[in-house]
Amino acid sequence: xxxxxxxxxxxxxxxxxxxxxxxxxxxxxxxxxxxxxxxxxxxxxxxxxxxxxxxxxxxxxxxxxxxxxxxxxxxxxxxxxxxxxxxxxxxxxxxxxxxxxxxxxxxxxxxxxxxxxxxxxxxxxxxxxxxxxxxxxxxxxxxxxxxxxxxxxxxxxxxxxxxxxxxxxxxxxxxxxxxxxxxxxxxxxxxxxxxxxxxxxxxxxxxxxxxxxxxxxxxxxxxxxxxxxxxxxxxxxxxxxxxxxxxx
Amino acid sequence: xxxxxxxxxxxxxxxxxxxxxxxxxxxxxxxxxxxxxxxxxxxxxxxxxxxxxxxxxxxxxxxxxxxxxxxxxxxxxxxxxxxxxxxxxxxxxxxxxxxxxxxxxxxxxxxxxxxxxxxxxxxxxxxxxxxxxxxxxxxxxxxxxxxxxxxxxxxxxxxxxxxxxxxxxxxxxxxxxxxxxxxxxxxxxxxxxxxxxxxxxxxxxxxxxxxxxxxxxxxxxxxxxxxxxxxxxxxxxxxxxxxxxxxx
Lengths: 248, 248
Fold this sequence. Notes:
- Two copies of one chain form a homodimer.
- By secondary structure, the first copy, chain A, is an alpha+beta fold.
- The first copy, chain A, has a domain at 4-174: NADH Oxidase (3-Layer(aba) Sandwich), CATH 3.40.109.
- Helices cover 50% and strands 12% of the residues of chain A.
- Chain A contains twelve helices and five strands.
- In chain A, strands 1-2-4-3 form a four-stranded antiparallel β-sheet, sandwiched between helices.
- The longest helix of chain A has 24 residues, at 104-127.
- Chain A is globular, with a radius of gyration of 20 Å.
- The model of chain A has no long low-confidence stretch (mean pLDDT 97).
- The interface between A and B is large, with 124 and 125 residues.
- Strand 5 of chain A pairs parallel with strand 1 (47-51) of chain B, so a sheet runs across the interface.
């Protein structure tokens, strides 16, 4: 199976260094329109997109998102908010006296809607030669983020995307290999990978990446320390709990 | 701005009636490979995909997902699980004595990873002439779903997708209009739509859909009763809370 669309999905990789060339208003509209065209639960579009144009706010976001200064330099910076507020406000405007408070199911459904829309924005941008990078760190520092973005209750960041044209070095960068299908897909019911299978999964991925003499224990321990046990990862869970408290 | 990829993103609409023609193994592989190629936090692929091939399990899922029998008739049925279990198991296998328990930040990051991958699967399928439909109801009935899919703690359904070739009537069906950009995008900070703006947003969407004499109050009240205040919507929040309790 091969076609232009499949090729584009496989070619897309994160871009973190941009040429500085702007994204035109037409390109911006095409990226946003593709996001809107994405599948959405009950055609509700349970998201709001913030287009961050203010340089000072960009700087604040770059700091709040684990100090990533390339966020400031992106041609376009979109925060995809899971929004469980618009529809209840419409219900009230239409005369529903007391719609129920949004719950955790609404939060997760809105999170899905926002991320599905974001991925269409990524694919649209790629088709225009515009690179992108997800910033998952936007989930951190709920209190400061709420203040910076004026987020009301029941509205929280699902993901952030920055866009721009890739410099040559970024274009040449190899896309990191993924795990093989066996590592990721089960038939019918969930089954844990055994320790031996996990070792083989990671080794196969490393081999795909051209890594020689891959040391599972050393690599995975280092990754765990650098990512999973990092301050930003703990902060992300503290912050996510603060957002989810709105839905309790 | 126009190209084949943007056209495909706009053309894609949900398909709920299938011809019965199977999805070939090559097509299945192309759909899954596109999902794997999606952006993923730290290249972790925080998801597991269940390929539901067992007819009895399909029937169970169709029932648990708000009684939608077309789920049984799909050529391919994939459950995208947010998986916060694989990496901690790898950490242990690599000799990390006691990795921290996954928290709400891990849950939301995995939810994002799973939905982003799912949307690539949708776009890949569309490029092969294969229709798809998200089933958000897969979030409901946590206890029965866990039992049916053998879900361990810290693994929960992010979304479900069914695939198949659309019958002619589904191909001809008009894609429902979305809200206009003004209704969905804010510059820099969040701003509520006023009641008057909400009325105008909904009226503009209805007009795009060719609905004459749109009655905002009546339509929104009915939607609220049918969707937001429905049993399945309340069940989704109860069930989502049960899944999220793993991360508390």
